[in-house]
Amino acid sequence: MKKLLLLGTCVCLWTVVSAQKWEGVADTPPMGWNSWNKFACDINEELIREIADAMVDSGLADAGYLYINLDDCWHAPERDADGFPQCDTTRFPSGMKALADYVHAKGLKIGIYSDAGRKTCGGRFGSFGHEYQDALQYARWGFDYLKYDWCESDNINPVGAYTLMRDALRAAGRPILFSMCEWGDNKPWEWAADVGHMWRTTGDIGLSFSEQIVHGTWEQNSVLRCLDLNAPLRKYAGPGHWNDPDMLEVGNGLTENQDRAHFTLWCMMAAPLILGNDIRQMSDQTAAIVTDPDVIAIDQDPLGVQGLRHSTDQGLEIWFKPLINGDWAFCLFNRTKTPREYTIDWQRFNFTDDEVSGRSTSFDTIVYDVRDLWYGGKSFRTDRKHEVTVPAEDVVLYRLTPSAKQPRRK
Fold this sequence. Notes:
This protein is an alpha/beta fold. The protein has helices at residues 2-18, 36-39, 45-57, 60-63, 96-105, 131-141, 158-172, 223-230, 256-268, 284-290, 293-299, and strands spanning 31-34, 67-69, 109-115, 145-149, 177-180, 198-200, 213-215, 218-220, 242-244, 273-275, 308-313, 316-322, 328-334, 340-344, 368-372, 380-381, 386-390, 394-402.
């Protein structure tokens, strides 16, 4: 009888432990690179090794980019005889374990892709019915990140499917960041904080700043469509559970202004910063945008609050993001195709962020020192109005820090 009771206790404890996602792997939004935006299914071992080399040599790793993520089409035509996933040995002749070891030796981490459905979006085998086998294999190979897609998922319950893979990853015994790519179809922000470390809030992004890309019966989202879908969901994001408006298109053919705006707005939204360009041959302007330490610090701020689109003024958006130590990020985003002159009257922006942080700007009682993060120049203070020109489809980004010289109180 005592043996039976002890066994029951062990089973109960195992259930509690296995039903938790791995903690501590996404306290700030993940940063890295993914193969899909630029290469789609055309990936192989040589490419991934070269990307890992470039991540270090370009300074991206020093800037905080950590993950090298394989997307779809790494798979062999079939699973092995026991049902475990295998890689395409023509494309990955050394195998996944050797590839993971190579990436780890660079001081980086590596991610892999699967699908909650019967097949992946690229037509390879999905994880449906093989969740525990797949998670175990990924752990054996040494992977640190799983992007889990939602194709071929008819009649599959999303809460059950993603929770099942979460439990499988935990049972496999290796800390793996769980990136849920369910496209926001079933509002994962409402139920997935204990399931995944990040969840897509949008359909797939495409190489367009403002116009939707139509592919017959489906569309790819523009940068602005992803922005607009993600912006209202700020109360659901925070350390360990992030809204994901999809990967970055910076460096893939947008204008420099659009790239800067795209990157800045993702940072203002505390979004994962997953590059989607060919980092082996970045232009100097692309490298300057994606490695800017002051802008990345806005995204990686340990307070972990997604920014607020406070208001709009004829196509000009005013954004605020609470930061540590009483600081704020302040962004003006010009959605229009013409430059915009604007007078910043700080006293118009006295408000309290009741929805998320509880922080107040308090421009009526606090004077801030203002630093221009993109264009430099002399810093100024919020005790007087400030004139600025925001270029077309571009941003102005400031960091506001409470000044050491505050006005005397009467």
